[in-house]
Structures are given as structure tokens and as C-alpha cells.
Amino acid sequence: MNTFKIVIAPDSFKECLTALEAAQAIKEGMQHVWPDADYVLVPMADGGEGTVRSLVDAGEGELITQKVTGPLGKPISAFFGLINNGSTAVIEMAAASGIEHLTPTERNPLITTTYGVGELIRSAMDHGARHLILGLGGSATNDGGCGMAQALGARLLNKQGQELPFGGAALAQLDSIDLSAIDPRLHELHVEAATDVTNPLTGQKGASAIYGPQKGASEEEVSQLDHALHNFATVVHDQFGVNIEQIPGAGAAGGLGAGTLFFLQGKLSPGIDLVIKESKLAQKVIGASLVITGEGKIDGQTIYGKTPIGVASCAKQQGIPVIALAGSLSEGCNAVLSHGIDALFSVVPGAVSLEDALKDAKPNIVRTAANIARVWNLGMHQK
Fold this sequence. Notes:
With about 375 residues, the protein is an alpha/beta fold. The chain has helices at about 20-30, 50-60, 95, 115-125, 145-150, 205-210, 220-240, 250-265, 270-280, 280-285, 305-315, 355-360, 360-380; strands spanning about 5-10, 40, 60-70, 75-85, 90, 130-135, 155, 175-180, 190-195, 265-270, 290-300, 320-330, 345.
């Protein structure tokens, strides 16, 4: 029992532990029972918050911090990661243009911009990156990625040939797009955007209608923004012959999905798939006796592209059992048992406050992991 291989591949436990810290806590607990096992830690994410940190930790990469233009045009501090010896950059668009940078009263998708995302991409190329993983999600914006394009040299012009200001509302005045000065390095940049959103750019299920209200848009402003994005898509189609309006995922991050497709010539993919590929999880689980995954909350939505299911799918291709830990097991959590996860454990010992659950996350995970190992040993003795 002391020589088998255990792969530990959790997502972060939001607000308390990074994915790497969670993995280390699971290992610590299991070492109480299996001190000589071969532990392989693979911090995971699903393309959203924590993706940069997870891939940097998994690949011993580097985190770069810099000033960029925030969603309201003011300087903010943002970051991106470099992995694969600097050849691959990992960017979360929310780091530059996320809703967390704004108070509720500051939210205004009519004027917020993704300009800072473009600045991060430019900096990544300055550092030598030729492959970009761009996490879409958590945006404060609804500008179709046009702000990002402006930072990279694109000019968005009205009928008078004047450049448009920042924001989604301004796209209603868009008449032409000048790409003559766009950064030429983009032609050599391989871009993969991580998103589990399938919304089109416009319409009843589009970026503005579905996500505009949470970004501060009124019903009237939602209609205004949807019209503006439709005009953007029309200009792109009429001028370049490219249809971005109804492609699944184009509406991700306020239309940044569409901007990624058009301006960056990128590909949209499920986030967990990209993280599994870049972390080389499939190779790392070869020969494992057990895979442990988890995240802060497992519920009925977990089966839709979340980390535990992606990890389980990868492990099951090699017939390896999978156990998942969570801070909370909520309604519908048993659905994951039909998607490759063999057993579920909540790490919370009983009725506790959220504050205490977050504060005690590490010792709770250590204790639960140790108990999993003890139960596993009991099962082996029954054979």
C-alpha cells in the first residue's frame, strides 16, 4: 500500500486556498496514512478565476504584474502568467477588465473597456510569448473586445473618420475598422480562449441581454448595447466577410469572445480542456492508483464543464478511481457520480459559519484527506 501513485488535481477553494494550497493540504492529510506514496500535485482550474495561478504553479512558470488601463480608463494593477519557458502566456481578462475592479455604483457597460486586456497581450508578446491562453469571464465590459483591439493598434472609426471612444455604446457609431496598424506579431500568435459560455454575440441570449444587467445596464441600456454589438458585427461582416454574430461563445465576456475570433483569429474552447492540456494532466495520471480532485462547492452545475468533471473524465479514460472533496455539497451534487466521480466528501465537519469554514479550510481538508486514506485501507483489507 505504500508504493502506489496518487494524483491530486483540485481547483481552488475560493476565498481561502489556491489550487496548489488545496493540493498540498490533501497531500499532507494522506501522508499521515501513506507517508511513502508517490504524490503528483497538479493544480487545476476551469478557465475562470485562478487559471493563471494554477497553470503557473503546475508548470513552474512566472507571474508578471504591471499597470494597465482599467475598465473605466483609470490605471490599475493587473497580471498574467508565463509558462512553457515563456513561450505561452496565460491571461484572465478579468485581471484587467473584470467587474471586481468596480463598485456596484461604478458599473456601466456603456463605457467600460477591454483596453487593458490588449495591453496585457502586448506585454506578453514583448516577453516572447507566441501562444496565448485567454480566460474569458468575470468582465465588467460589453465592448465586443474592441477596446482590446484598440490597445493592439486597431482603429475604430465613425462616418467622419474619427476614432470611437471606449465602451460598448460607442459601437453604435462604428462605420469602419482600420487594421493597418495592428501589431504584426498577432499574425504569429496562436490564441486559445477559455470559456464555457455558449451565448451568441447578440439577441435574446446574447452578451447584452444575458449579462448586461449584472454589469449595471438597465433594460433600455441592454437594448442599446445589443444594437451596438449588432452594428459591430455588421461592419465586420460587410468589411471583412467574417460572421461573428451567432457563433456559440461569441457573447462571452461582453462579446470578447467575438473579438477574440475576429481580431486575434483565436479559437474558443472549454476552459477545463485547455487547462488539462497545458498542465499535461493526461500524462501525469498514467499509472496512478487514485486521483483526488475537488473545489469549494460541488452542486448540480458542476457537471457543466467544471474542474472535478474534467479531471474525472481524464482519469476515467485510464480506468482510475476518482474521489472529490468540496467545501460544500449542495443541491444536485450527486449528479457528478454519473460523470466519473466515484465518491464525494464534504470537508466541513458540521454546522459552522462561512467565516469559520473559510478560516479552517486547510485543517478541514487535511483531516478529510487522512480519513479518505484510512477508509481506502479498510476497503483494501476486505479484498
